[in-house]
Amino acid sequence: MSPKIIKGIIYTCLYSILITPLLVWGKFLFPYITPKTFFFRIIIEIALFFYILLIIYKPEYRPKFSKLTWIILVYILIITFASIFGVDFYRSFWGNIERGEGLLTIYHLFIFYILLISIFKEKKDWFRFFNASIFVSLILAFYALGQKFEFGFLLQSSGGSRLTGTIGNASFLAAYLLMSSFLCLFLFVNRKEIGWRVFYGLTFLFELYIIFQTETRGALLGFFGGLLLIALLTVLFSKNKKTKFYFAGLFLLLIIFAGSVWIFQDQSWVKNNNALRRLTQISFSDITTQTRLLGWQAAGKGWQDRFLFGYGYENYNVAYNKYFPVAIFLDIGSRVWFDRAHNIVLDQAVPGGIF
Q: What sign results for the dihedral spanned by CA atoms 181, 185, 191, 197?
């Protein structure tokens, strides 16, 4: 088999990975998660096999370890060490059927990363890959739109009025489209062709609309916070006066919009919009905020028990069960997130320790 064919197979595998968010199979207990996990792992393993063949024939495709690569590798070694000496290595390695993670998926993600930086050598390779990713996100966004209009041939949204697409979770759909929307902005700035810029701009606006329809407060705050940060940094560090002017205007518009939503939260245009209404309801008296804070307290206590090396990956539930805050359970409808702290620092510190 020639290196050209081998490289073509690897390219096919890497592009195939992009359709993972679209996969759903009702035969599984977790139809939105299990098929995605199996597909991703299998395709990565196929790609790895052919990549090993390729680097035998073509040494120039062997991975080059940058600072970023070393940082990622160090993280993987630390979390592996923490898991080996944690409370349940079996669970750490395999994860659980509901999340489909564990060290096994982390290792596959690292291989995916190595394949990408080793195979894609030129800027045009990355732009093509990003374009394919945006096309897939656009399909998913249109699917979610179909759920909004309740097309009978589509799966109903599992989040009720909050759109979930083929991901099955409104928050996860919002996070996925959030990354895609910022990717659209990146390509909009870096591509000069008018046709592509129109495509990126329209896709950005459409996916932003779908993000609003997920009613995910974290994603919306992340979106506005990200835009604010980009605008502020551009104003501070850009040497182009025209660019500074445009981004200063963007910064001002975002501040005005956010302030208007907060000041006029009792007006119909805010109250009748579920996403905006949910944003104005964020407070320390909000039940979601209270339960999250209680969860963080429990996670903090658990971390103190195994401060250096943690409980091992996917073993957060052990610490949480030990220090479960009874105040979090108000009634039979209470949501008890037992496997995640919903705080990125604690979600890494409890299973992996201070390192």
A: positive
